[in-house]
Amino acid sequence: VQLVESGGGVVQTGGSLRLSCVASGEDIVEINFMGWHRQAPGKQRELVAGIAKGVGTVYLDDPTGRFTISGETAQKTSFLQMNNLKLEDTAVYYCNVLARTSYASGDNSYWGHGTQVTVSS
């Protein structure tokens, strides 16, 4: 299973970015979760948002609603729209999926290599 992220970059505060993640691999039989995590320098990796098959979307506590996740586990794609970006959003953003490669097995966790998001003042 391979995950390819794109869409990161440098943006000024208040700007927007849209991250994309595409999962591939002929052995994927089902994806049950697609999510975005981030890791800022000196901090632990944290879940930003995710889509769970049959459940819906989940978000990190984001009362302003700046981030929106979309996509379909069946289509093996997810997108993270980030608006009104702040300096504290600077981090490496990682795509993560829970997928199984056999109907007889459970989910395994797969990670992309990450895409850098830098918000500048």
General description of the model:
The chain is an all-beta fold and 121 residues long. It is 0% helix and 58% strand. It is built from no helices and 11 strands. The protein has strands spanning 2-6, 9-12, 17-24, 30-39, 46-52, 56-59, 67-72, 77-82, 91-100, 108-111, 115-120. Strands 2, 4, 5, 6, 9, 10 and 11 form a 7-stranded mixed beta sheet that branches. Strands 1-3-8-7 form a 4-stranded antiparallel beta sheet, with no helix packed on it. Strand 9 and strand 10 form a beta hairpin. The mean pLDDT is 92.
Structural class: mainly beta
Task: Name the shape in a single word.
Answer: elongated
Strand content: over 45%
End-to-end distance:
37 Å
Oligomer: single chain
Largest sheet: 7 strands, mixed
Order of helices and strands: EEEEEEEEEEE
Report the strand count.
11
Q: Summarize the amount of helix as a percent range.
A: under 10%
Q: Helical stretch count?
A: 0
Overall pLDDT confidence? 92
- Kindly provide the radius of gyration, computed on alpha-carbon positions and rounded to a whole number of angstroms: 14 Å
Low-confidence stretches: none
List keywords for this structure.
mainly beta; 7-stranded mixed β-sheet; 58% strand; 121 residues
Short précis:
This protein is mostly beta strands and 121 residues long.
Topology:
Elements: E1 2-6, E2 9-12, E3 17-24, E4 30-39, E5 46-52, E6 56-59, E7 67-72, E8 77-82, E9 91-100, E10 108-111, E11 115-120
Parallel strand pairs: 2-11
Antiparallel strand pairs: 1-3, 3-8, 4-5, 4-9, 5-6, 7-8, 9-10, 9-11
